[in-house]
Design a protein that fits this description.
Strand 24 and strand 25 form a beta hairpin. The chain has 20 helices and 43 strands. The protein is 29% helix and 22% strand. It is α+β, with helices and mostly antiparallel strands. The chain has a four-stranded mixed β-sheet with strand order 14-9-8-19.
Length: 913
């Protein structure tokens, strides 16, 4: 039989008689109110300093707790664990770690410009080592901290209940010491941050004295006294603009640079860099570690090692020696360190502090004035307290003097009274004649008493006076003791008069503050540690680089180096030269002269272009092989430099004209190449199997000459090549034989010569001839890929030319110049290439007085005057220009630019020749 299921019971409890509905809340309003409360708590109770004493609550509570423990500057140090416990017990309900960290920072002289705590034991180091545990270290207050706590017990500041209401703590310290500006402060609150740098105590005190003497002093006048921050670790502030902006109440930044010297080795070895200071809040070990990382990542390549020679015992807490590689430029390396490492850092300035519990951004003058206003209040409250105490004590002394003047009556009352309280009551009822009281306390005291109590025939003791009289000892009734009481009373009357005058005269209050500041300055002031310069601080690698000519070489295997111009001596024609310091089986492929501040536009055989500064190329000796170009430029595998154009600046109107091995030319604006990525950009698009041979810098009206390996040359106007973008192929420049190729391109100089040199040491120079409008009938196609056109047949040898090593000369006038043609033709015969001469290896545009460099495949280098090379016609074999060793061949030639030799800084055009 199935059992019936009982109905479900209602388990909901009945409503409580005290139950009331909950009012709904708007979550947006609740979050806003709660967040604002939290933000205000963070600002006021944790992160921001008070403008009056420059302390955050945690710092203030530690100093007050140490003062409660009696850890004054003259006392013995006490365990930091006890200080932390006292601070936590009385004032600061937070963890011991945060309290100890705050205490330690106030004891570190590389953090605080003037320490507030004197530490005993390991409190860390500027190297970045941590402090010992608080159970091992001890501390006490410094004299500067004692000055901040002075008069704390004179009711100079307001007190509030601590977190549990058992103790009272000050809202602010009296702070005779101008802590906020001297030690600075930094902190991050909710939505705001403060960055107040430290300053020199002596300068701050002088600035405050100036503001006391002249309340209308301008910021400019204050800057003459306080030029800027003074960091405990020294350093150099680069520029004053950021300082002025920060002192005007704006958020600004300054550049702080560590002090470092370049030390020359007395034995002639590579100089090294000695770092003597670290920037503020940068540790020594961390700086050395970051420099090591820069070297490891090859961001700075000329550093061979870093050595720590720091020793606090020798007075050198920071001494890092940066060793450089041989041939490295120490000025360049130092600038790289400033740019890439914390050796130079940016320091913010934001003068944000709490003013009456509210965060405000202040100017320097306002911040100083707030401190002075606080000191005025402290002096007034201290004086009022001292005045009250002096009057209270004087009132007691008046009663004692009355008792002495009526001694018999006082003794009678005391002897006949059954108790002390009865005696005190009867003494209060005892009348003392005005004449007797005048005699007892003196004329001055009686006059002051009359001013307070009024004129009457008799006076009576107050309860306080009667209490003091019944407590007097019998020995105090002696005549000598009576005189001491009267003397003390008169001194009190003088003090009271002085206090009243001080309270009634604002000038005297300022004089007291002025004297306090003068005393503090004289006691604790010291010299400035941080230097301030007018330099803006922007790291410019060129600032310390002399603008002077230099020789740059690039070898066939890709080694690059920079040498001073005086490395090579001038030799006569036919000299053998000196060794260029090449590796085995390597030879110089590129050789040119440029100033150290020129830009190098490096074009590769694949048509790419890379951007480089000459001074960034490692300087090396003549016998050094140099540095792999892969360490200087980010070249692709098997990519080689084919042409380098030194350029001073990228001006409008200049063009780059390029030529390829197969005779294609392209003209592009120089400004198209002013901004380059580290990985390079496209300079010219090349056809399959073609490569870039050379690049020339041109301007309107220039004419160019293309030269081939078989001795042909064509002269045409740069206007024949229309301007194209970077990512294009170009047009035909010359129509060559199938076994020929381009070996050089120069800009024609109507007053100069075309110098052609062959691989077996022969060469000649022929006048370019003036610019000419005469043209041959044939014209080239507009595009390099168009079919070949009818070409001019090369001119036959002139009848007047003769063979011979030193005697060849052309008599035909047409053979002594290069006439203008249209691009795309076959050109004219420039030089005969024979078994004696060999193929042409290079050409150059020269003038009388110029010098050239010739480099062989075996690395021999000679410097010769072009005046020693005979002027002959085009269709000749030339003369010997260099004696070669057996089996050697000339690899390349380069002209020493006249401007580079004579006047490198003044004569260089926007683009170097």
């Amino acid at each position: 039989m199935a059992r019936a299921t009982p109905p479900p019971s209602d388990t909901t409890p009945p409503p409580s008689p005290n139950w009331a509905p909950i009012d709904p809340l708007d979550i947006v309003d609740e979050l806003r109110d709660s967040y604002l409360t939290y933000a205000q708590s963070v600002m006021v109770s944790r992160a921001l300093p008070d403008v009056r004493d420059g302390l955050k609550p945690s710092q203030r509570r530690i100093l007050v707790a140490m003062n409660d423990l009696g850890l004054t500057p003259n006392a013995a140090t006490s365990k930091c664990a006890g200080i932390i416990g006292e601070t936590m017990k009385r004032y600061h309900p937070h963890g011991d770690a945060s309290i100890y960290d705050t205490l330690v920072r106030m004891a570190q002289d590389w953090v605080m410009r003037s320490k507030l705590i004197h530490g005993q034991g390991n409190f860390g180091s500027i190297a970045g080592l941590p402090p010992a545990a608080h159970r091992y270290t001890e501390a006490r207050l410094t004299p500067a901290a004692a000055e901040m706590l002075a008069d704390l017990d004179h009711e100079t500041v307001d007190f509030i209940d601590n977190y549990d209401g058992k103790y009272r703590e000050p809202l602010v310290l009296p702070s005779k010491f101008p802590n906020l500006l001297v030690n600075g402060s930094d902190g991050i609150a909710v939505g705001m941050a403060t960055d107040i740098p430290p300053h020199n105590l002596r300068e701050v005190c002088d600035g405050l004295i100036k503001l006391i003497d002249d309340p209308e002093a301008t910021l400019q006048e204050l800057l003459e006294i306080i030029p800027g921050p003074d960091f405990p670790t020294g350093g150099i502030v680069m520029g004053r603009h950021g300082i002025v902006r920060g002192y005007l109440g704006e958020r600004s930044r300054i550049t702080l640079r560590a002090r470092a010297d370049i030390v020359e080795d007395s034995k002639g070895k590579t100089p090294h860099i000695v770092i003597k200071e670290v920037p503020f809040q940068v540790t020594r070990n961390r700086l050395a570690e970051l420099i090591g990382e820069l070297v490891k990542e090859e961001r700075i390549r000329d550093i061979s090692g870093i050595r720590d020679e720091s020793s606090a015992r020798n007075g050198e807490p920071v001494r890092l020696v940066v060793e450089l590689k041989r041939g490295a430029d120490p000025h360049l390396v130092l600038n790289q360190l400033y740019q890439l490492s914390p050796l130079q850092k940016t320091v913010s300035i934001s003068l944000l502090a709490l003013v009456d519990g509210r965060p405000l951004v202040l100017t320097l003058k306002e911040m100083m004035q707030k401190f002075l206003d606080h000191r005025v209040q402290v002096i007034r409250r201290r004086t009022q307290y001292l005045l009250r105490e002096a009057k209270r004590r004087g009132h007691v002394l008046e009663g004692q003097l009355i008792a002495i003047s009526s001694l018999d009556e006082v003794i009678r009352i005391c002897r006949t009274s059954p108790s002390r309280s009865e005696a005190k009551d009867r003494l209060q009822g005892m009348a003392v004649a005005a004449s007797v009281l005048r005699t007892a306390i003196g004329e001055a005291g009686f006059d002051a008493l009359q001013q307070e109590l009024g004129l009457t025939e008799a006076y009576r003791m107050t309860e306080a006076q009667a209490e003091a009289v019944v407590r007097m000892q019998l020995g105090q009734l002696a005549a000598l003791e009576s005189d001491e009481i009267l003397k003390e009373y008169k001194q009190l009357r003088e003090q009271i008069r002085g206090y009243e005058e001080l309270l009634g005269d604002e000038g005297q209050v300022k004089a007291v503050i002025r004297k306090d500041l003068t005393d503090i300055r004289d006691k604790y002031g010291n010299d400035r540690k941080t230097e301030i310069t007018d330099d803006g601080g922007d790291v410019d690698m060129e600032d310390l680089i002399a603008d002077e000519p230099a020789v740059v070489t690039i070898s066939h295997e890709g080694f690059i180096k920079r040498l001073p111009m005086d490395t090579y001596r001038v030799q006569n024609r036919g000299g053998k030269g000196v060794s260029g310091g090449l590796r085995e089986n390597d030879f110089i492929e590129h050789f040119f002269v440029a100033t150290t501040k020129s830009y190098l536009l490096c074009f590769t055989d694949r048509g790419q272009m890379y951007w480089l500064k000459v001074y960034r190329i490692p300087e090396a000796s003549r016998t050094s092989a140099g540095r792999s170009i892969a360490n200087v430029l980010q070249l692709k595998p098997d990519e080689k430099i084919s042409s380098v154009i030194p350029v001073r600046q990228f001006d409008e109107g200049y063009h780059l004209l390029m030529t390829t091995k197969k005779g294609t030319i392209k003209k592009s604006a120089l400004t198209d190449y002013s901004r380059v990525r580290a990985g390079g950009i496209i300079g010219i698009n090349l056809d399959e199997g073609d490569s870039l041979i050379g690049v020339c810098l041109t301007k309107p009206g220039d004419e160019l000459i293309l030269s081939t390996r078989n001795g042909m040359a064509i002269r045409f106007s740069e206007a024949d090549a229309r301007e194209m973008g970077r990512n294009t192929r170009g047009v035909r420049g010359i129509n060559m034989a199938s076994d020929d190729e381009i070996i050089g391109m120069v800009v024609a100089d109507p007053e100069g010569y075309l110098l052609a040199v062959c691989e077996k040491g022969y060469g000649k120079r022929t006048p370019f001839g003036p610019n000419s409008a005469g043209e041959v009938a044939d014209e080239g196609d507009d595009e390099a890929t168009a079919p070949d056109i009818a070409a001019e047949v090369a001119e036959p040898a002139d009848a007047g030319e003769v063979g011979g090593e030193e005697g060849e000369e052309a008599t035909s006038r047409s053979a002594m110049r290069y006439r203008l043609q249209r691009r795309g033709g076959k050109g004219l015969r420039d030089i005969k290439t024979s078994d004696r001469n060999g193929k042409v290896i290079g050409t150059a545009s020269v003038r009388d007085g110029d010098e050239i460099m010739l480099i062989t495949m075996q690395g021999m280098v000679t410097r010769s005057r072009v005046d020693d090379i005979r002027i002959v016609g085009r269709n000749t074999q030339g003369v010997r220009v260099m004696n070669l060793n057996d089996g050697d061949r000339i690899a390349t030639l380069a002209k020493v630019a006249r401007e580079a030799v004579a006047e490198p800084a003044a004569a260089l055009p926007p683009a170097a020749e």
